[in-house]
Amino acid sequence: MDDEDLAKKQSSPLDALEAEKLDSLSGDELRQRIKILKREIERAEADLKTKEASMTAAESVFKT
Length: 64
Hints:
Order of helices and strands: HHH
């Protein structure tokens, strides 16, 4: 295994997503991709809110 192969295995799914070529996708495929990515953003934002609320609750316990 060379360095390039190792780097590819260590890259995150987000890196792979960013590296994808979009020029071969049709308009419908691009719209579907955008729809999926928007849902994923909503999911990530909801999880972030939950984590932030948990952190705030934990911090309030230790402040008193």
